[in-house]
Amino acid sequence: LQEAGFVFDVSRVVQVEEEVEIRRWDVETAQGPRRFATRLDDWPQALPHGGFLIRDVAGDLYRLRDPARLDRHSRGLLWAFVD
Predict the structure, then answer these.
(1) 6-65: per-residue pLDDT in tens?
(2) Nearest one of 81, 29, 83, 15 to 60, comparing CA atoms
(3) How far is CA 75 from CA 10, 11, 14, 48, 59, in A?
(4) CA–CA distance from 69 to each of 4, 25, 41, 43 (Å)?
(5) N or C: which end of the chain has fewer CB within 10 A?
(6) DSSP for 17-71?
């Protein structure tokens, strides 16, 4: 993460929609609302010290530091895409 430089910290997952070969995420971050896309076969990666990391198709990184602190709706959307 340090090498990447800039990472969006996700505070809420608003919506996730699947389209042809793309998954669209609407999230709220510390930097404001964001909409990004991931490939259908790209899943959130578990981080060694907890949390998850999502890389979008443009290479931007989105970090969910503490998924347990997310609201119920956000957790429900996230857990559909993690093991």
Answers:
(1) 799 999 999 999 998 999 999 999 899 999 999 999 999 999 989 999 999 999 999 999
(2) 29
(3) 12, 11, 10, 19, 23
(4) 25, 19, 26, 20
(5) C
(6) EEETTEEEEEEEETTEEEEEEEETT--PEEPTTSSEEEE-TTS-EEEES-GGGS-
Residue owning tokens 């907890």: 50
Cβ atoms of 42 and 58 within 8 Å: the answer is no
Judged against a pLDDT cut of 50, whether residue 1 lies above it is answered with: no
Token code pair at residue 20: 């042809």
